Amino acid sequence: MDSDEILSELKKVNSNLSKQISFKRGFLLSMVQGIGSVVGATLIAGIVIALLYQFIISIDTLPLIQKLFPQPTLQQLLNSTFKK
Fold first, then answer.
1. Is the separation of the CB atoms in 48 and 66 below 8 Å?
2. Domain ranges in the chain?
3. Which pLDDT tens digit goes with each residue over 11-58?
4. How many CB atoms sit inside 10 A of residue 66's CB?
5. N- to C-terminal Cα separation, the chain
6. b or e along 69-78 (b: 16 or more beta carbons within 10 Å of the residue's beta carbon)?
7. Fewer CB near the last or first residue (10 Å), C or N of the chain?
């Protein structure tokens, strides 16, 4: 390699490093990561809540639950908790 090629490669490295340590780039990447985390957490929370809701609705058919809570009481509890 001659000195011109080395100088050219050093300029490319310098340019790439200046982009990587740029405040604007770091700020934008942090914003995107934060928004992605919020959207992901919201989706996961929604799925968990939907699964829990389906589980709670289905447990009223279990005999043990029916003995502990009479049917009208359980239905009132579910209606007051999950109003449609």
1. no
2. 3-81
3. 888 888 877 777 887 889 899 999 999 999 999 999 999 998 888 777
4. 13
5. 74
6. beeeebeeeb
7. C
